[in-house]
Amino acid sequence: MSEPILSIRNSVKAYGPVTALDQVDLDVREGEFLTLLGPSGSGKTTLLTAIAGFSPLTRGTIRLRSRDITHEPPEHRGFGMVFQGYALFPTMTVRQNVAFPLKVRKRPAAEIAARVEECLGLVQMQAFADRMTTQLSGGQQQRVALARALSFSPQILLLDEPLSALDKKLRADLQWELKALHERLGVTFIYVTHDQDEALSMSDRIVILKDGRIQQQGTPDELYNRPRTRFVADFLGKSNFIEVELLGRDGPCIACRAGGAVFTVAAGADAPIRGAGSVALRPERIRLAAPGVEAMQGTIRQVSYLGERCQVMVAHPVLGQMLISQPTWQSAVEPHPGTEVSFGWSPEAGVLLAAG
Ligand code: ADP
Ligand code: MG
Which of 11, 12, 13, 15 best tests ligand 1's pocket when mutated (most atoms within 8 Å of CB)? Predict the structure, then answer.
């Protein structure tokens, strides 16, 4: 793997008694779309502002390639920023806003004019160049903020929940645009969100934070399909959790028992193979069928129709309430509350979680 563009080591940030970052180590690869994901208060903004240089670390180091930038002021780091509290200048036009970082850097006027046009083109805002930013919609303002952050060709772009104030449909559109922009420019993106779907759909890699610590990092696929802890399995999408007794290895899987039911689960090489365990099972990995077809028998308690999908809550005497999600168009049974059904899953569908 090539040398990381940014390396953070042993970073700690304390606000009085509150430890907002607790021994965070993070490498950011050149050109990647990296997302910091976590619930409110998990330390995402603290980490991003430490990278930006707005809020110095209590301990630890930050390196930009081979350069130690831990104590450098923000303007020397030269990162582009789209932050919530870093609003557009209301007394300037769109064009003046985007030109601002270039003026500060004392670039020649002709170069500024050309670069501003180019950046407004990137975010499809050329037609609005002479408007005041107060006359723009929320989505348009975010586009201008993005153009301003990109105008001086930063090597790293830092974005703190840039789409969170927008309505759902517009947010989805801008997610596609941001992703396309990232691919086109090849700039390293460090993106903060508390929105799981946003993180899954946009990122090359996701870092999950909780209480100032990294819980797990990996590609969206790794985190979704192989969560290590209950927190990650629960935070990223929905999961059923089953408390089991581990019975030992069964090929690449581990056999386990919950009440009278015996099944196998996927497990890493370092997973325990005896004792008590906890298994996460995604609702969409469970098959629903007519009574007797699958291994487990249960009764439908609740049905929730979501258009393309249908979510069904099935009560099982040992496993408890199981959430099952099925594409509406391939429903094997008509799901109605009170209906007896069977359900099951393939041997590697469940994931054995680490203790704790
Ligand atoms: P997130 O962006 O994930 O919601 P933050 O990084 O803003 O979380 O906050 C992490 C923790 O640090 C929280 O407990 C928050 O209350 C605390 N915190 C953040 N900024 C300050 C500050 N300026 N003074 C005191 N505590 C702060
Ligand atoms: Mg925040």
Answer: 15
**Rounded Cα gap, residues 71 and 331, in angstroms:** 59
- Chain centroid to Cα 315, Å, comes to 31
Q: Which residue has the higher pLDDT, 96 or 169?
A: 96
Ligand 1: distance of its center to the CA of 46 in Å? 6
CB 196 within 8 A of CB 236: yes
Architecture of the CATH domain 238-352: Beta Barrel (2.40)
pLDDT value at 246 more than 60: yes
Provide the 8-state DSSP code for 134: G
Residues 150, 156, 162: CA angle, nearest 5 degrees: 65
Q: Where in the chain is the domain with CATH 3.40.50.300?
A: 6-226
Intervals of CATH 2.40.50.100 along the chain: 238-352
Tell me the average pLDDT across 72-92.
90
d(CA 204, CA 102): 30
- Least trusted range by pLDDT, from 16-20, 81-85, 198-202: 81-85
CA-closest residue to ligand 1 atom 20: 46
Q: pTM of the full predicted structure?
A: 0.92
Cβ 156 vs Cβ 80: under 8 Å: yes
Please name the CATH architecture into which domain 6-226 falls: 3-Layer(aba) Sandwich (3.40)
Task: Give the residue, 115 or 259, on which the prediction is more confident.
Answer: 115
